[in-house]
Amino acid sequence: MHKPLFDHIQKFISLEPSDIDKLESCLEISKVKKKEHILEEGQICNTMYFVVKGCMRQFIINSKGAEQTLQFAIENWWITDYLSYHNHVPSSFYLQAVENSEVIAIDKTVLESLLIEIPNLERYFRIVTQKTFGAMQMRIKFLFTMSAEERYHHFNDNFPEFVQRVPQYMIASYLDFSAEFMSKIRAGKV
Amino acid sequence: MHKPLFDHIQKFISLEPSDIDKLESCLEISKVKKKEHILEEGQICNTMYFVVKGCMRQFIINSKGAEQTLQFAIENWWITDYLSYHNHVPSSFYLQAVENSEVIAIDKTVLESLLIEIPNLERYFRIVTQKTFGAMQMRIKFLFTMSAEERYHHFNDNFPEFVQRVPQYMIASYLDFSAEFMSKIRAGKV
DNA sequence: TCAAAAACTTGAACTACTTCAAGAAATTCA
DNA sequence: TGAATTTCTTGAAGTAGTTCAAGTTTTTGA
């Protein structure tokens, strides 16, 4: 079902029924099994993904061979590799399902011509991207100013359900500390 | 002069002469003296700034009273606090001139109505924001996977002129290590 | 339902960085 | 020009985190 996407869009702009039809015909919903990749390092990313259900993450494999989560996307978030998408260069990232998920995929070529046809949709993406960018600016602030323990508590206070929902080692790497250290923070052993 | 902005815009989209006039009438260029603030913590940010000449930075004052640079913007970059701008909440950041600079300021109310009038301009901002977001994703990757020394060399290799141009302690905090440690890296004493 | 896999915990040893304090060098501007 | 300010450097001591290795608990799926 595409409804969650249309609901999300209509929070920011309103679409003509004809535009809704046009957009609808371009969307492809797909189920992604837990741990399945929708993008791998080295591939060119030609798709934007909207999470209808479940949870996706962007991660890399670092020089020690360990996975490092850089970004999560839950229901109603967009996720893609914007650099690869816009510059048509190989991606540095993996995009993977953390849970069994459903995503709406929009192909770049299709989307770009759709955006020219529907200026209001262009507006939607501009606003959503700028808001996400704002959230990213705050994230950098937190990473720069808080200790590991403060970052954990802050995240836990703000997204308690989410912390329950995904493996702790992913949260640890998203907050930029080791899984072992997170375990100690939780046990009050720091 | 507004030319640098129009040149930048026309790299991504093309504007009708009438649109150029319309936009032109909304722009306000202003000189910002080195160290002068164009936004302070606690204020609501209602403006987007385009750097025509010079260099601006976004920084915070951390719990120890030290300045921490989170972002730079040189010629042809936009800078603002997107969270404060979109959610109309007090900013967590300062925006300050690193050098004597010239910026084009566009007021939010003016810009938002302009964007509705000129869909192509909406497109420009969508593309520019997404590209900047892509750069930010890479930045997070570098912060997460490289050591302080690697981050310094990587930055220095990619932006050698820029490293000459701004005080080293600002670069150090932008790369998330202390000015003293940067000094030691440069001296080969690590 | 139960064996295998994935996720979490613990302590001990280590290290990449920070902090502090003081001096030297470079830049600014009256 | 030269005094004041800003920026950079250096070494010594400290610490917030990592790494490793091994064991325990929880979850998964045939």
Automatic annotation (TrEMBL), chains A, B:
InterPro entries registered for this protein in UniProt: cNMP-bd_dom, cNMP-bd_dom_sf, RmlC-like_jellyroll
Stored CDD domains: CAP_ED
Domain Cyclic nucleotide-binding: 11-123
Domain of life where this protein originates: Bacteria
Name of the molecule in the record: cAMP-binding domain of CRP or a regulatory subunit of cAMP-dependent protein kinases
